[in-house]
Amino acid sequence: MGFDLERFVGYVNEGLLCCVCRDVLERPLQAPCEHAYCSACISSWLLHHHSCPEDRQPLDVGSLKPLYRYMRNDLNRLQIRCVNAGQGCEVVCSLENLHTHEDECEFAFISCSNTGGEYICYYCGCPVQVERRGLEAHLSECNFRSRECPNGCGHTLLSMDQSQHNCVAELRTEVELLRAEMLCKVEEVRREMESRLDSQRRHMVQKESQLKNEVEELKGQLSRVMCDMRALLGAERLRRQELAEAELEKRELLELLRDLPTRMGERARKGGTRSLTLDCIKRKSREVTVI
Ligand SMILES: [Zn+2]
Ligand SMILES: [Zn+2]
Ligand SMILES: [Zn+2]
Ligand SMILES: [Zn+2]
Ligand SMILES: [Zn+2]
């Protein structure tokens, strides 16, 4: 949308008017057919058309160009009244300088800068709109101006809340909130510890049953070993017994040998069986050696 023609002081060349809105060009663009438009006007026109609104020649966004420089200079030099003329601003300036002036125009309506104390929120701030020149006066009585509590409780108060402010009550609420928060945290920690203990307990039970199994296994092995040992001891005892018997037999044989000459004498006298007895002795002594 362009600038209202009525705001201009002096003659405005018709070539500086937008072909869509018929006001003075604002952020102008130019088509290859040399017709010019405000950039907002031609953008919305081309959403539904594909031609110049003035002469119906084909046109698309890509072929739009900046205005000729001499036209831009003419446009910038036009003299225009401030948009706040209705509120009393009498400033007339070149179109080029209009934004600079309007950004600091004393007659412009602006929003109060108080945002609602410590909670910065667009909706709960001061809704008042004042002329820039009246802002200071408004701020001194604005309901949303804030300051620290004069009694030192540390709260920031909006002036409209100050009469109802009670330091003790505020602090008590705060303490209660903190206490609730802490209880919550303690409960959380307790639950976590319990779950950790639980898992450790489960682990221990598992370990215990594992150990029991191992002990049972070892007991089995031990009893097998004992059994083997008993068998070995039995065998050993048997061997000793046999040895003792063999020893006994040996001694008997030795005695027999010692007495032999005497007996031989007797036998010689009786005659006969000497060779038989000798064979018998030899066989016996061989048996003893084997054992
Ligand atoms: Zn326009
Ligand atoms: Zn055209
Ligand atoms: Zn102004
Ligand atoms: Zn305010
Ligand atoms: Zn206080």
TrEMBL record:
Residue ranges of every copy of the TRAF-type domain listed in the record: 100-153
Ion transport keyword on record: no
Domain RING-type: 18-56
Superkingdom of origin organism: Eukaryota
GO biological process, one term: regulation of canonical NF-kappaB signal transduction
One Pfam family this sequence matches: zf-C3HC4_2
Family matches, as InterPro entries: Znf_RING, Znf_RING/FYVE/PHD, Znf_RING_CS, Znf_TRAF
Residues forming coiled coils: 190-228
Matches recorded under PROSITE patterns: ZF_RING_1 (PS00518), ZF_RING_2 (PS50089), ZF_TRAF (PS50145)
Zinc finger (TRAF-type): 100-153
GO molecular function: zinc ion binding
Keyword annotations from UniProtKB, A to Z: Coiled coil, Metal-binding, Zinc, Zinc-finger
Protein name, as recorded: Ring finger protein 41, like
